Amino acid sequence: MRNVMNTQSSKVVIQLIDGRLSRKRLEFVRKHVSKLELLTDRISEIRVSLRMDGGTESSKVCEISVSVPGKNLFVSKKSDTFEESVDLSVNALKHQLESWKATIARQSRSVRGSIES
Questions:
Q1: Rounded CA gap, 66 and 1, in Å?
Q2: Domains (ranges, CATH) in the chain?
Q3: CB-based contact 79:88 (threshold 8 Å)
Q4: For 9-13, 25-29, 72-76, 113-117, which range has the lowest pLDDT when averaged over its residues?
């Protein structure tokens, strides 16, 4: 099942591979993924993929890819529940986005400094 949601600044695609996505789980994913958009308005697309990985107990996988200018950020986390996998993935992506923003800010200062020289 695939669900596409457009937000103010980006397109969010949520996909469950080999299964059905309950309304409750869909809302959980939307709520948590929307936190990423609070970090920057430069996100053009977020893709979330939920899937089972084998028959092990901790086999719920969440993969999230975030498209920002000049970079595609990606994380994949596995745990006992989809909700925990989503939480882990969103937290990891928050760190990646903060790092990306710091890099962009450094580059911007560097360009401004070279122009002023």
A1: 20
A2: 2-116 (3.30.160.100)
A3: yes
A4: 113-117
Convert the pLDDT of each residue in 19-66 to its tens digit. Answer: 777 889 899 999 999 999 999 999 999 999 999 887 766 689 999 999
Q: What's the CA gap between 44 and 38, in Å, rounded?
A: 13
Does pLDDT of 4 surpass 80?
Answer: no
The residue among 20, 103, 36, 27 whose CA lies nearest residue 75 is 36
Please classify residue 30 by burial: count the beta carbons closer than 10 Å to its beta carbon, then call 0-12 exposed, 13-18 middle and 19+ buried: middle
Question: What is the Cα–Cα distance from 106 to 117, expressed in whole angstroms?
Answer: 17
- Comparing CA positions, the residue from 31, 42, 88, 82 lying closest to residue 66 is 42
Using CA atoms, how far apart are residues 69 and 109, in angstroms rounded to an integer?
A: 17
> What's the rounded Cα separation, in Å, for the pair 113 and 117?
6
Sign of CA pseudo-dihedral 74, 80, 86, 88: negative
